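User:
I would dearly like some help making sense of a protein record. Take your time, and here it is.
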Amino acid sequence: MRHTTEYSDTLTREQRQRAMELMASQFCELLGRSPRENLYWQESVTDLMDLSHEVYLSERLVDSHGRPYGFRRIVELACQVLHVVTPCNPYSMAFNARNRKGVRQTSFFSRYCWLMFKSHTPNPLRQMVKRMNEE
């Protein structure tokens, strides 16, 4: 049996830090969009909760008084902009996402890093969101 290592664990500390900053920045930009733009999240809700939690921990989203957004507020905003039903317990989903293990259940951050460094994708989140046309 082979031991699996998350791709992000193979990166240097500087590469992980750069990826985390870029991921948070891209997600903050995405959350600034309007629900009327018809952007839809194409990955799992668990991935969205994992991403939301990472951005929450980064404290990059702040209100008009300079206070960091709470996790619940980030989740509500993400779900609104990306047309996802807000989970009843996003904290539990984020916790479960953190404890994923195995080849088929790598962390969202590790997959983001893989797209960024191996596939040379400048904005990996763009691949995870689709604009639906209004008919």
